[in-house]
Structure formats: C-alpha cells, structure tokens
Design goal:
The chain has 22 helices and 21 strands. It has 622 residues and is α+β, with helices and mostly antiparallel strands. It folds into five domains: 86 residues, 3-Layer(aba) Sandwich (GIY-YIG endonuclease); 145 residues, no CATH class; 119 residues, UvrC, RNAse H endonuclease domain (Nucleotidyltransferase, domain 5, 2-Layer Sandwich), CATH 3.30.420; 166 residues, UvrC, RNAse H endonuclease domain (Nucleotidyltransferase, domain 5), CATH 3.30.420.340; 55 residues, no CATH class. Strands 12, 13, 14, 15, 16, 17, 20 and 21 form an eight-stranded mixed sheet that branches. A five-stranded mixed sheet has the order 9-8-7-10-11, sandwiched between helices. The protein has a three-stranded antiparallel sheet with strand order 2-1-3. Strand 20 and strand 21 form a beta hairpin. The longest helix is centred in the C-terminal third of the chain and has 35 residues. The termini are far apart.
C-alpha cells in the first residue's frame, strides 16, 4: 500500500537538480516551511527518505501533504527568493529572525532652510536627508540631542510652527535658540553651528572640535560673570563626554578603513545558537544586537541558516545599511550570499580576514557571553516555551501565544484586547481591539469572554496556545467554546494566588511573585515562580493585555460621555461634533477656561458654534 510519504518521495525524485526554492504545504494548503537548495532534487528527497532527521524536521514532515518548487538561475537568486517567500507566508517551521525594536537615529533634513536635529525611528533615506545611527537601546541619545540643540542654539520647533512664528519664542530669551524663524541669524552662521554640533557623531577629530567650541563658550560665560550659564554648560559637557567615551573606541578606528560597517559572528552552544551584530558608524562602536534560536530546530545546514537570518535582518532594515558587512562565516556559499545582498544594491560583503580579526573575536565573544548569561539567569524564551509544552503535553514547542483581557467599569464601554507573542516576543502588528456589547446585568466577565472568543474564532489561523486573564471559571468558559467548535488549541489562564486572612475571612491578593497558571485537567495550578523564563513571558503578556484593553476602554468611555453632552448643544452639526471628539484633550472644567475665540480656533468652529459651546459650558457650571 502506497503511503503519503511514498507519494511525496516519488514526486521529489522527479525534481530537477537545479537551484531553487521549495514550499512545504499542510492539508489546508498553507505553506509551513520554505527552503532553498543548490540541487532541488537532492534536498527535497532527503525529507521523505529514510535518512536520519531531527525531531523538529520529523514533526514538520508528518504534516506535509504536498510541496511546490520554484527554479532559480543561481544559488544567490534562491537566497533572495527564499527570503521573500518567508516574508510573504510566515511559515510556522522557519526560524524567523525578528528584530522587534525600532532603533533611534539622528536625522537632519537639508530640504529645510534651517535644519534641526531630529530623533527618529525607522527613518527613510532621501537625497537631502542625513542619518546617524542606529543608537543602541538604553542609550541617552535623546538627551544628547537636546543638549546639542540648546548648546548650539539650534531650531527645535516643527516646520509648521517655524513658518508661522512672527516673534522669537521663549527658548530664544533663554539663549537656547538663535531664532532663525524671524531671521535673527544668517543661514551661513546657522549651518556652521549645525556642522559643529554633529561633529560629535563624525569621528574623533570632529568630535574634539565640537568639544573645543563648547568649552570656549563656557569660558566666555565665566568671563562675562554668567556663572549659572557656565555651570549648566559644564554639566552638559560632562554628559557629552561620557557619551563619547562609551561610544568611541580607538581600536575600532585603527582596525577598519570604512567608517560604517556591520560585523557578524556566532556561537554554537549545547542547546542554542547565538548570532551577534556589532554596529560601527563613523568609526564609533555604537552598540550591538543579539539573536538566538534553538540548535535542534535547524532544518538546513548551519551556515545556510545563519546567512538566511542575516539576509532577513537587512530585508527588515533595508532603508539604512552600512558601507560594508563583515561576516565570520568563510564557507563555499559566502559568494552566493555576497551576490544576493549586493544584487539588491545594499553594500559590500566580505568574510573573515586578519585585518578585522580582533573585531570579529569581540563579536564572537559577545555571542558566547550572551548565551552564558541568559543560561545562568534562566532567561531564554525557549526554556519557558519548552516548559509550557511540557505542562500542556504538546508534541511541539509552542511559538505563537495569544492573551486576552477584558476592561469594564460599572457595565459601561466594555472592551477586550488580543495580545500576540511570537517566540516569546510581542508581535504588535497582530494586536487587536474588541468593542463589546453592554449587558443589562452590567459586569459579566463570562458572557463577554464568550463574545470575544466567538468573534475571534471566526477568523481561523489559531495560535499554538490561548491565554486568558482569569481563573478556572474563565478558562472553562473558553474551553467550552473550543470544544463546541472542535478546536484543539490549548487554553490556560493566569491568576494571582489568593489566601484567606485569619480573623475577618477577607481575601488578600498576594504579590506578582505568586502568579499561577491555570491548566484544565490539572488538579493544582502551576506556580510560575518555578520557571522564571515562562513567568516573564506569561506575566508580560497579561500586563500588556491589561494596558491595551484599558487604553481602549478609557478612550471609549471618554467618547461615550463626551458624545452625550455634545448632543445637547444645538447648532454644532455632525462634522463639528466629530472634529471636537477627535481633537479634544480637555475636560469640561478645562474647556470653561477658554473664551469664545479660543474655542473657535481650537476646534475650527464658526463663531456662532463657538458661542453655543461656550454657553453650554457656562450653563453646566450653574
């Protein structure tokens, strides 16, 4: 009797020995894995023959019902295609390198006559925009930009405000702005100050010139007996000096000729692989990033997987890339990887060499130490997710988790939030809000939880585990819905332990350290303190769900209350009401302090509408 696996093997044996990509599909036709190969026939056949495979690969193969393939002209082209297919399908069994942070940059837009120092995230390159960064998470770059702006009296206002000003602002009176808005400084002088300020980010020589300029300014304040200004500038120079010492590394400047470069290296441990990136910008070591994943879950050769992860990274960060990328992976496929990146117009790619040996060793050491610290502190997300797999008796480690919370007060404006974590990290693009129906009986968590899940389950594409903020009753409510629809996705709850206080029998809520995981069929809840990694994931999801649902609840409740009294004002009109609802940030008491003209300008009203609004506010106070 021919089995499914036999049929797939027969199909694989008919493939050409050409470079290309293959897409594994499940019984619903969903793509669950995308791979690339120099020789399609050899690679795809290996999944369905009797050769030894990892447990993860066996799980994936067991779910494959069919596969498709795409031939490419070269191995480099298959790198690019594989990356695009992974982005398009987000297959479950591909390890995705997710950089969920948006890192800060300094942006200077020379399309404006008097450019300012702008703090931006996810910048877009343009011909007249200059960028410095990225700066590492936790850096004080926003403080640095504020100091440079006020110390060199640069413009700090928005372009619209800059164009509309007729008189200098308060910052000019405080000697923190040269007032280019009213032409109190020549453009050439302003550009000179701007050029000096950004010298801090342009290497050691220009940074020293910036410090010399501010030191001279501080001394001038002292000579003029403006001691308070001199003291403030002295303190600012100390902050700028600390930033330079933390960022600038003389060794880096001596090791590379390019001012901008990314250095990649890796460390293979017993269970995990760490991939580290060092960011060099303008000869300065600005920071590092670290990514890690489970060694046993690799389905390709190690170096091919690592190259694919690096390519993924630049597909996310393709707006800002360095002049050079150095990878500590000198293998036969580095040529294909180089061709793949350079064909996208990115940058120059080089491998290991003695010239950059010290930097690559630093990067490799960082990968090793990151893994050691994470292991000693039980901080790996994979430890937590594997513990959840064990608790729920799942065949595979869960990757996608969804957490739900309901916000309601006195039965009004009930809302719910859907929070999604992938591989233990937030996936904010998949967050969802739910506006729920108000109920005659008021607060009814169980009915509202049922409403949320009945709506959610209509959309399919379920996570590996559902999580609800609540105890056994809430968990059983959701489990009943899942059972009715024959959906086998596990459901758990998170709740704080409670104990009776002796004497008055009142319940006392314990601290966060006593969080419990409610699991259907388990006699006692699982104490999350037993697994710090799982504790961190689950509690972070619950707290994020709280924040998200309450944010929407407060917005909905504010709109409901505000809408009620706006409807009582005659002559406003629907468009004016919508505009007030959209733009208002004040309470009724605060709005009463505005006169008619101020209300008119605030909400772009006609004068009679502003009077009607003012009259209503005054009558409410009476």
């Amino acid at each position: 009797m021919t089995t499914k696996r036999d049929s797939l093997l027969e199909k694989a044996l008919s493939l050409p020995q050409e470079p290309g990509c293959y897409l594994m599909q499940d019984k619903l036709g969903r793509v669950i894995y995308v791979g690339k190969a120099k020789r399609l026939k050899s690679r795809v056949t290996s999944y369905f023959n009797e050769s030894a495979k990892s447990l993860k690969t066996e799980h994936m193969v067991a779910k494959v019902e069919d596969f498709q393939f795409i031939i490419t002209r070269s191995d480099a082209e298959s790198f690019i295609l594989e990356n695009n297919l992974i982005k398009e399908h987000a297959p479950k069994y591909n390890i995705r390198l997710r950089d969920d942070k948006s890192y800060p940059y300094l942006q200077i837009n020379y399309e404006e006559d008097f450019p300012r120092l702008e703090y931006v995230r996810r910048p877009k390159k343009a011909p007249k925009k200059e960028l410095y960064g990225p700066f590492p998470t936790g850096s004080n770059i926003s403080q640095i930009l504020r100091i440079l702006t006020k110390s060199f009296a640069l413009r700090d206002c928005s372009l619209s405000e800059f164009k509309s000003r007729k008189t200098p602002c308060l910052y000019h009176q405080m000697k923190q702005c040269s007032a280019p808005c009213v032409n109190l400084i020549a453009q050439s002088d302003y550009e000179k100050d701007l050029k000096t300020a950004i010298g801090l980010f342009q290497g050691k020589i220009k940074a020293n010139k910036m410090f010399d300029a501010l030191t001279e300014k501080m001394n001038q304040y002292a000579e003029n007996e403006e001691f308070e200004m001199a003291a403030l500038l002295r303190d600012d120079l100390k902050v700028l000096g600390d930033f330079r010492e933390q960022s600038f590394d003389q060794q880096v400047e001596n090791l590379i000729s390019e001012k901008d470069a990314d250095f990649w290296s890796y460390f293979v441990g017993e269970e995990e692989i760490d991939l580290s990136l060092y960011l060099i910008r303008s000869g300065m070591l600005l920071g590092q990033k670290n990514f890690h994943f489970i060694r046993s879950e690799l389905m390709d050769e190690l170096h091919e997987e690592l190259f694919q992860k690096i390519l993924q990274y630049y597909s996310f960060e393709d707006d800002v890339v360095p002049e050079r990328i150095v990878v500590d992976l000198e293998t036969e496929i580095i040529g294909s990887f180089r061709e793949a990146l350079e064909s996208l117009g990115h940058t120059k790619v080089t491998g290991y060499s003695k010239k950059v040996q010290a930097l690559l060793e630093m990067c490799r050491k960082h990968a090793e130490e990151s893994q050691r610290v994470r292991k000693e502190n039980q901080d790996s997300v994979y430890v937590g997710l594997n513990k959840l797999k064990e608790l729920l008796q799942m065949k595979e480690r869960p990757q996608t988790l969804e957490c739900y919370d309901i916000a309601i007060w006195q039965g009004k404006s009930p809302t719910a939030s859907q929070i999604v974590f992938e591989e233990g990290k937030p996936h904010k693009q998949k967050y969802r809000y739910y506006h729920l129906n108000e109920r005659p009986e008021g607060n009814n968590d169980f009915a509202m939880m049922r409403e949320v899940f009945e709506r959610r389950l209509q959309h399919g594409s379920f996570p590996d585990v559902f999580i609800v903020d609540g105890g056994l009753a809430q968990v059983n409510t959701v489990k009943a819905i899942l059972d009715e629809l024959k959906i086998e996705t596990p459901i758990v709850g998170i709740a704080k332990s409670r104990e009776l206080t002796r004497g008055d029998f009142r319940e006392r809520e314990l601290s966060k350290s006593d969080e419990r995981l409610i699991i259907p069929g388990r006699a006692n809840p699982y104490s999350l303190t037993k697994c710090p990694s799982l504790f961190k994931i689950i509690v972070s999801m619950r707290d994020e769900a709280h924040r998200f649902s309450r944010k929407l609840h407060h917005k909905a409740e504010s709109k409901r209350v505000f809408q009620t009294w706006l409807d009582q004002i005659k002559g406003l009109g629907e468009e004016s009401k919508k505009r007030i609802l959209r733009e208002n940030t004040f309470t009724q008491d605060e709005l009463r302090a505005f006169d008619v003209n101020e209300l008119k300008n605030l909400f772009d009203l006609k004068i009679d509408q502003a009077r009607a609004l003012k009259n209503y506010l005054n009558s409410e106070r009476e």
